[in-house]
Each structure stands twice: as structure tokens, then as C-alpha cells.
Amino acid sequence: MTESESFWEFYWKTRLTEIETLGKRAAILAASRLILRLSKQLGRPLRLLELGCGEGQIIGTLLDAHASLCDVRASAGVDYQAQSLARCRRLVPGARWVEGDFTDATLIGGLGEFDVVLLINALHEVFSASYCVEMGEINIPLGKQKVERAFSLAVSRLSSHGNLVLFDGVEPAGDPGQPIRIRFHSAWARDEFDDFVHGYRPFQITYQKLDNAFSIELSQHDFIRYITKSIFIRKKLWESECLESYQYFTEAEFRAMVARQGMEITDIEAFTVNDEKWRHRVEIISAGSEFPQEHIFMIAQRGGGSS
Fold first, then answer.
1. Which among 27, 39, 123, 215 could bridge 210 via Cys, Cβ 3.0 to 4.6 Å?
2. What is the pLDDT of residues 80-101, one digit of tens each?
3. How far apart are CA 230 and CA 274, in angstroms?
4. SS3 (DSSP) at 268
5. pTM confidence score
């Protein structure tokens, strides 16, 4: 374990207990290492921007832990929730907190340039906002177009040497219609799945019952949406989580989008973060099938000299 990771192990246990990890820990650790490296490279405090910052847990944590390496007053967060930004201002009063939509080109264009731009669990909300009432689900082509436009705006805020840190859901490679058979471990897990089917808005979920009440068959597309939302069902967060799909791009699509922006990927990993929790609810009984990689982490760098 490196010195940076050792520090964050301690910091996570003592300061970040209120954050549900869900992979955010990996994103914070990697962003911390990036800040340490860039600050040495540039020899000056860094300017950070988080788009869709929520209550400021990610950028606030990084600015707090690396106060001597970051220019707090030149750092900013953008979110459309005024209540969330009020907490940000209490958390980091010196930073700039902007209320608005980070897909608004005028708003984003007025923010200035930054050394690190953070997109942590943000772009899936852009994709999910393309819900079509007539279709009864998300308009996938439109949603993907909006994601790419939002990503382009984020890239436009990078300084010539800037790095973009992204963490979000990822669509598994392969046929999304591939059938998967699963078995629920209990009656409550089976009932919970029914709540998911009836309450999940982004896509219509379909399945077939098998030889007993606890076994069903559904597509890979529907299965990954069930497992990634299962920890929120019947909890307060379900009110918002039922409206969003974490999955929208495959890893190949993420890579292609980054390339189109003239960016170079310096770190990328797709992984599973909640399989232990899922195994308490359900098991996969299809031969050769495993819980899919459902999140992606990526750092992409803009070329050019320092400024």
C-alpha cells in the first residue's frame, strides 16, 4: 500500500463514514494521487471543478485533504440543487458554488479553466433525463447524444494540461438481450424485485417465471439494472434512484467518446463494487454467467504544455 493509499484508508474510516462507498472510494483515491502528481508537476496550487457536485462530498473531501495543494478560491462545484449547494458552502466556504445545469453551455463557458474536472456519478443523470413519455422509457439515442455534449462541455473547461476524472455506471459488453437465469434467496428478495419492476421508470422490465416462484429469466439489460438498484429499493433514496439508469455506454463507447475529444486515457478500469450485497439477495443459475462489471473509472488527459 502506498503512502497516499495508507493515508486515505485512515481518512476514510475517520472522516467519510457517512458516504456510501459504491466505488466512490476508488475515485477519491485516484483523484488524490492525481492531485499529488499534478501539484509537483506544475509547482502551484491546482484548480478543481466538479460538475454535478451534489453536497460536495467528493470535491470537498479532496480540497480539505489537499488544502495546501489546491487553490480553494479558484475551485468550483456546479449543481442544480440549491439545498445541496447550501451544504457545500458550509463544507468549503472558500470555493465557488454555482447553481445551475452543467449541460448549459453558457453557464459552463463562464466558469474559467481548471486543472482537474470531476464527473462522479453525473453523466448517467444526463442520460436518464432523456425519458420519453410516449415511449415509456429513456430515448437511448437522444440520451447518448446529450451525454457526449455534456462531456464535451466538461472537456472545454480543462486547462491545456488538464485531467478529467470520471466515475459512473457502464453497460457490459456483449448482447444486452442475452438471457440470464437467477434465483432469489428469500421471499423478501422476490417481493423486492417485484417492487423494482413496478417502480423503475427508465426502462420497462420484463421477465419470465421458471420452475418455482423464486426463479426467473430476464435479459442482461434488465438484470444489471435490477442489481445496481437493489440496494436502494424500499429506502428513501429509491424516490430518486428509481428515475435513473446508471448504465448508458459500454467501455468501448466511453473510449470512443474520449478519443473524439482529442483526449488520452491514462487510467481506466471497469469493475464490480456490490457483488457481496447482491449475493445476499440472488444467485445466477445460468451456466458460465457472473455478476457483471457495472461501474467504470477513468482518467483522461488533455495534451499540450502547462499554463
1. 215
2. 999 999 999 998 999 999 999 9
3. 10
4. strand
5. 0.91
